[in-house]
Amino acid sequence: MRIDDYAKWLRTLVSEAVVQNYIKRCQRVEKNLDISLDLEFRKDRGASLLDQLTYTMEDWQKHRPLRCSINFRAGSDWYKGLASLKTAVNKYFEFCQVSDASRDC
């Protein structure tokens, strides 16, 4: 993940607190899934990873297992937790698309 470039780009869109939260969430996904967001973007524009991070309200209500190995504390709301991780990762892939014309992610 190109943290510095991502942070610089994000600062044009959101507050510093949100920048730091998005970076931490992206790093958590990379660490927990042992992946590189840059490689995931190159592979399929991030589509397969975003699919893994999708957890619907119906999934939550029916207590379906997660499609990925993200670790959550006992009693955590997986639905909200995965949604926040997915939002940050999706924003990183948006950054990659914008910067892709001038430099590969």
Automatic annotation (TrEMBL):
Q: Which domain of life is it from?
A: Bacteria
Q: What is this protein called?
A: Uncharacterized protein
